[in-house]
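Milestone 3.1: sequence recovery, worked example.
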């Protein structure tokens, strides 16, 4: 006689290490994060404020997921996420720039930065991986209107996001395309490694005067450590500062897929 014993299996819940979502309560932001940093890009509701297609950076003090709590604190409790209450803060100023790793087009001797996205789509979402796509209808390049589709992948344990970009339109001139980092008032420390298409920039976390003042008023200090940002565009033919942006760009033909990586860390992050 064979006796069969059935044992109930209890599946442990898997704690996600990555997260992202559309944020309609904050003017159509699209925000995402992994253990090391959080980011957001700007949507159509913010268009009257002339935002860019650049990347905003939120600093994190630990691997804890913070996107929802930051928005809740700002929108519901009235506690600005520009102040560090112990979990991190939003102190990076983007404006109409490429920000901390946004797309840069170099054409006719200057850089071109787009506006907010028009559509969003979540492509994949697991505890370890988050993939989404943003589409832009009106990227202006040297008097021409291009369309941009950018697919961004963030994974657990990775310091950089993967960006896959496709541009379409009627522009026939030469262009260089890749990722860039906007340099604030002081060019503090930067590094280029042309042979691998890599650029690195470090600055004071409170380079923005408004964020500096808000943190000083809250905790009496203007010191919030250092930010380190990087971009890698494989095959880049130019890694340099152009129009105040540290860029890694390469020749590009409309319709092709260009892949680059971007990411950031904070000196105050603790595991």
């Amino acid at each position: 006689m064979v006796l069969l014993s059935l044992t109930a299996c209890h599946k442990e819940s898997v704690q996600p290490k990555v997260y992202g979502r559309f944020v309609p309560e904050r003017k159509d932001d699209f925000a995402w994060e992994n253990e090391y940093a959080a980011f957001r890009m700007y949507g159509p509701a913010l268009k009257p404020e002339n935002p860019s297609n650049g990347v905003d950076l939120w600093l994190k003090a630990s691997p804890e997921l913070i996107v929802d709590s930051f928005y809740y604190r700002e929108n519901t409790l009235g506690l600005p996420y520009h102040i560090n209450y112990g979990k991190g803060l939003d102190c990076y100023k983007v404006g109409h720039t490429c920000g901390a790793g946004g797309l840069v087009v170099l054409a006719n001797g200057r850089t071109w930065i787009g506006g907010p996205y028009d559509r969003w789509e979540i492509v994949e979402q697991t505890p370890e991986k988050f993939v989404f796509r943003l589409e832009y209808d009106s990227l202006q390049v040297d008097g021409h209107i291009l369309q941009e589709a950018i697919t961004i992948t963030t994974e657990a344990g990775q310091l950089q996001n993967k960006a896959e970009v496709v541009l379409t339109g009627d522009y026939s001139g030469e262009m260089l395309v890749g990722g860039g980092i906007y340099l604030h008032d002081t060019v503090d420390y930067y590094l280029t490694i042309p042979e691998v298409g890599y650029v690195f920039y470090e600055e004071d976390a409170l380079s923005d005067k408004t964020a500096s003042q808000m943190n000083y008023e809250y905790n009496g200090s203007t010191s919030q450590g250092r930010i380190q940002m990087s971009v890698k565009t494989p095959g880049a033919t130019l890694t340099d500062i152009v129009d105040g942006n540290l860029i890694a760009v390469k020749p590009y033909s409309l319709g092709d897929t260009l892949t680059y990586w971007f990411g950031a860390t904070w000196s105050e992050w603790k595991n």
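Confidence is low (pLDDT under 50) at residues 1-6. The chain has one domain: 19-266.
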